[in-house]
Design a protein that fits this description.
This is Lycopene beta-cyclase. InterPro entries: FAD/NAD-bd_sf (IPR036188). The radius of gyration is 21 Å and the shape is globular. The chain has nine helices and 18 strands. It is 28% helix and 32% strand. Strands 1, 2, 8, 9, 10, 11, 17 and 18 form an eight-stranded mixed β-sheet that branches. A seven-stranded mixed β-sheet has the order 6-5-13-14-15-12-16, with helices on both faces.
């Protein structure tokens, strides 16, 4: 006996929940049987935060926990203070996101939640089949965010992990400016990698302080905590307590993730929604899903990621991976040589060719030029 659904969502994290939300808001779930599958079941607790920049209001504007109109960048020789209008830098916590989307989905009478890992996922062009434990299931259409486990040495494209750990801290003194976020602070020992901290203040005494590392060698929890402790002691001199922590890993690669296989649609990181050169996912994912909902069910109309932006990402990643430049030089110099809104638009993949030429003219042209040509072939 095969259990059949009209739509299956395999993975109930950011990508899976966002997909259901966008499809539901567009009216595409009406009258359809839907199953949402995840081995962790219904997500409710705080397990991560998503930060991004955008112009104007986004689809989850009411969930924005805090926003900043100014950002800073630092390395050992430069300290930049940037007004980023018309953009705002925003943060959404998973707690509010899960609560909001789950409440919306709870109004759907045809949605079934299954706490299980979907395995043996296959598409024959007519339907998608998968197993939930011993149960055989099928769906007319499926969206999967199940990860594709890549090994850096087995692919020709550049690959770096962005692994990170953050503390939500409360200090005993007013030391933070809640109007300004530290986007990238490289004033921490690099150890041959690209390591930076970022600080997102919510009040003069509360902030998220996080360390991110671009490398394929991960640290222990104690290793990340040591970096954060030293960073706080050097730059935010106040006694503090840690309210809670978060951490994770984001693969950064220009590996050509397929968008679909028949009626199996890949979403989230699995569908290439992560911007390879930065690791930012939230904004690109919502943009991807907005287009998906608009073209539903004709997924042939889904626009691919512009090839020239893939080439830019491959160039940036290769430079970092090969150590030709480190992040402290590369990213801070980009902001130092350009209006911040141009850099942010570029990192969102929303610049014109003319803007890109202007931006590239401010980089280390021999390094960027030779690497760009290398990645073409």
């Amino acid at each position: 006996m095969i259990t059949h659904y009209d739509i299956a969502i395999l993975g109930a994290g950011l990508a899976g929940l966002s997909t259901l939300y966008h499809l539901g808001k567009a009216g595409h779930l009406a009258g359809k049987s839907v199953v949402l599958v995840d081995p962790e079941g219904r997500k409710e607790a705080h397990d991560r935060s998503w930060s991004f920049w955008e112009e104007g209001a986004g689809p989850f504007e009411e969930l924005v926990y805090h926003r900043w109109q100014k950002v800073t960048l630092h390395n050992q020789t430069k300290n930049l203070n940037c007004e980023i209008s018309p953009y705002e830098y925003k943060l959404i916590r998973s707690t509010e996101f899960y609560a909001h989307v789950n409440a919306y989905l709870d109004t759907s009478p045809n949605l079934e939640r299954r706490t299980s890992l979907a395995t043996e996922v296959q598409s024959d062009g007519e339907q998608v089949t998968f197993r939930l434990g011993e149960e055989q299931c099928s769906a007319s259409l499926a969206f999967s965010s199940l990860p594709l486990h890549l090994r850096p040495r087995q692919i020709k494209q550049p690959y770096l992990d962005q692994h990170f750990r953050g503390w939500f801290v409360e200090t005993e003194e007013d030391i933070f400016d809640p109007t300004t976020a530290a986007l990238m602070d490289f004033r921490t020992p690099q150890h041959g990698e690209s390591r930076f901290c970022y600080v997102m203040p919510f009040t003069p005494r509360r902030a998220l302080v996080e360390v991110a590392i671009f490398s394929n060698e991960h640290l222990t929890t104690e290793g990340y905590d040591h970096i954060l402790k030293e960073y706080m002691a050097a730059h935010w001199t106040s006694d503090y307590r840690i309210e809670h922590t978060e951490g994770g890993n984001i693969p950064m690669t220009t590996y050509p993730f397929p968008l679909r296989k028949g009626n199996l649609i890949y979403i989230g990181m699995r569908g290439g929604a992560t911007r390879p050169s930065t690791g930012y996912t939230f904004y690109a994912l919502q943009r991807q899903l907005t287009r998906l909902a608009q073209t539903f069910p004709d997924f042939n109309k889904l626009p691919p990621w512009p090839s020239r932006h893939i080439q830019y990402d491959a160039t940036l990643l290769r430079i970092l991976q090969d150590g030709k430049l480190n992040g402290a030089e590369l990213f801070v110099d980009l902001f130092a040589g350009n209006p911040p809104e141009r850099v942010l638009a570029f990192l969102n993949g929303e610049t014109s060719i003319w803007q890109e030429l202007q931006l590239m003219s401010t980089t280390n042209i021999p390094v960027f030029g030779s690497t760009f040509v290398r990645e073409l072939f």
